[in-house]
Design a protein that fits this description.
two-stranded antiparallel sheet, DNA-binding, single chain, globular, two-stranded parallel ribbon, mainly alpha, Arc Repressor Mutant, subunit A, about 110 residues, 6 helices
Length: about 110
Amino acid sequence: MPQPITFFSKVYEVVRLIPYGRVSSYGAIATYLGTAGSSRMVGWAMNKAHSHPKPVPAHRVVNRNGMLTGKHHFGGTNLMQELLENEGIKVENETIVDFEKLFWDPMKEL
DNA sequence: TTGCTGACCGACG
DNA sequence: CCGTCGGCCAGCA
Protein backbone atom coordinates (compact mmCIF):
# COMPACT_ATOMS: atom_id res chain seq x y z
CA MET A 1 0.00 0.00 0.00
CA PRO A 2 1.74 3.15 -1.14
CA GLN A 3 -0.82 5.26 0.69
CA PRO A 4 -1.37 3.98 4.24
CA ILE A 5 -4.35 5.37 6.12
CA THR A 6 -2.96 7.82 8.62
CA PHE A 7 -4.31 10.75 10.59
CA PHE A 8 -3.23 13.05 7.79
CA SER A 9 -4.93 10.95 5.15
CA LYS A 10 -8.17 11.09 7.10
CA VAL A 11 -7.89 14.86 7.36
CA TYR A 12 -7.39 15.21 3.61
CA GLU A 13 -10.29 12.88 2.96
CA VAL A 14 -12.68 14.85 5.15
CA VAL A 15 -11.53 18.17 3.72
CA ARG A 16 -12.14 16.92 0.19
CA LEU A 17 -15.65 15.96 1.24
CA ILE A 18 -16.50 19.58 2.03
CA PRO A 19 -19.22 20.58 -0.48
CA TYR A 20 -18.92 23.51 -2.86
CA GLY A 21 -19.66 26.83 -1.19
CA ARG A 22 -19.25 25.40 2.29
CA VAL A 23 -16.52 25.72 4.94
CA SER A 24 -15.41 23.83 8.01
CA SER A 25 -13.18 24.33 11.02
CA TYR A 26 -10.05 22.62 12.33
CA GLY A 27 -11.70 21.70 15.60
CA ALA A 28 -14.71 20.12 13.89
CA ILE A 29 -12.50 17.94 11.72
CA ALA A 30 -10.31 16.98 14.64
CA THR A 31 -13.35 16.05 16.70
CA TYR A 32 -14.80 14.04 13.83
CA LEU A 33 -11.57 12.08 13.58
CA GLY A 34 -11.88 11.29 17.28
CA THR A 35 -8.86 13.38 18.22
CA ALA A 36 -10.61 16.39 19.71
CA GLY A 37 -8.04 18.83 21.04
CA SER A 38 -5.47 17.97 18.41
CA SER A 39 -6.86 20.55 16.03
CA ARG A 40 -3.29 21.74 15.55
CA MET A 41 -2.63 18.50 13.72
CA VAL A 42 -5.33 19.41 11.22
CA GLY A 43 -3.62 22.70 10.51
CA TRP A 44 -0.29 20.98 10.28
CA ALA A 45 -1.79 18.46 7.88
CA MET A 46 -2.86 21.36 5.69
CA ASN A 47 0.72 22.55 5.64
CA LYS A 48 1.74 19.16 4.35
CA ALA A 49 -1.24 19.10 2.00
CA HIS A 50 0.98 20.49 -0.76
CA SER A 51 2.94 17.24 -0.65
CA HIS A 52 -0.27 15.27 -0.98
CA PRO A 53 -0.91 13.80 -4.48
CA LYS A 54 -4.62 14.67 -4.39
CA PRO A 55 -5.89 18.28 -4.38
CA VAL A 56 -7.00 19.49 -0.96
CA PRO A 57 -9.40 22.46 -0.71
CA ALA A 58 -7.62 23.82 2.34
CA HIS A 59 -9.13 27.22 1.66
CA ARG A 60 -12.45 25.78 2.89
CA VAL A 61 -10.91 25.09 6.29
CA VAL A 62 -10.71 27.96 8.74
CA ASN A 63 -10.51 28.36 12.50
CA ARG A 64 -13.48 28.33 14.84
CA ASN A 65 -14.01 32.06 14.44
CA GLY A 66 -14.34 31.75 10.65
CA MET A 67 -11.11 33.71 10.28
CA LEU A 68 -8.67 32.89 7.46
CA THR A 69 -5.72 32.27 9.75
CA GLY A 70 -3.92 30.14 7.17
CA LYS A 71 -4.21 32.47 4.23
CA HIS A 72 -0.51 33.26 4.50
CA HIS A 73 0.18 29.72 3.32
CA PHE A 74 -1.69 30.34 0.08
CA GLY A 75 1.12 32.28 -1.48
CA GLY A 76 1.03 35.07 1.07
CA THR A 77 -1.67 36.86 -0.89
CA ASN A 78 -5.47 37.11 -0.85
CA LEU A 79 -5.66 33.96 -2.97
CA MET A 80 -7.52 32.10 -0.24
CA GLN A 81 -10.13 34.84 -0.03
CA GLU A 82 -10.53 34.90 -3.80
CA LEU A 83 -11.04 31.14 -3.89
CA LEU A 84 -13.77 31.42 -1.26
CA GLU A 85 -15.45 34.34 -3.00
CA ASN A 86 -15.29 32.36 -6.23
CA GLU A 87 -17.52 29.79 -4.52
CA GLY A 88 -20.00 32.45 -3.45
CA ILE A 89 -18.63 32.81 0.06
CA LYS A 90 -18.40 36.40 1.26
CA VAL A 91 -15.20 37.33 3.05
CA GLU A 92 -14.60 40.57 4.90
CA ASN A 93 -11.40 41.48 6.69
CA GLU A 94 -10.07 37.92 6.37
CA THR A 95 -13.23 36.63 8.04
CA ILE A 96 -16.05 34.58 6.49
CA VAL A 97 -19.45 36.29 6.50
CA ASP A 98 -22.36 34.14 7.76
CA PHE A 99 -19.83 31.56 8.83
CA GLU A 100 -22.48 29.81 10.94
CA LYS A 101 -24.67 29.27 7.87
CA LEU A 102 -21.83 28.11 5.64
CA PHE A 103 -20.32 25.96 8.34
CA TRP A 104 -20.18 22.28 7.36
CA ASP A 105 -19.96 19.95 10.32
CA PRO A 106 -18.69 16.46 9.35
CA MET A 107 -20.20 14.98 12.49
CA LYS A 108 -23.68 16.12 11.47
CA GLU A 109 -23.39 15.72 7.71
CA LEU A 110 -21.64 12.33 7.77
C1' DT B 1 16.17 8.33 18.36
C1' DT B 2 15.21 12.87 20.42
C1' DG B 3 13.43 17.26 20.26
C1' DC B 4 11.21 21.11 18.03
C1' DT B 5 7.53 22.76 15.51
C1' DG B 6 2.84 23.78 13.84
C1' DA B 7 -2.78 27.19 9.29
C1' DC B 8 -5.81 25.64 16.87
C1' DC B 9 -8.75 25.64 21.04
C1' DG B 10 -10.10 26.41 25.61
C1' DA B 11 -9.06 27.87 30.24
C1' DC B 12 -7.20 31.18 33.43
C1' DG B 13 -5.96 35.82 35.62
C1' DC C 1 -11.32 42.70 27.53
C1' DC C 2 -6.95 40.87 26.30
C1' DG C 3 -2.67 38.50 26.84
C1' DT C 4 -0.57 34.11 28.12
C1' DC C 5 -0.13 29.12 28.71
C1' DG C 6 -0.90 24.17 28.25
C1' DG C 7 -2.44 20.24 25.54
C1' DC C 8 -3.14 17.56 21.62
C1' DC C 9 0.07 14.27 17.96
C1' DA C 10 2.53 13.42 13.55
C1' DG C 11 6.39 14.88 10.47
C1' DC C 12 11.10 16.44 9.85
C1' DA C 13 16.33 17.58 10.71
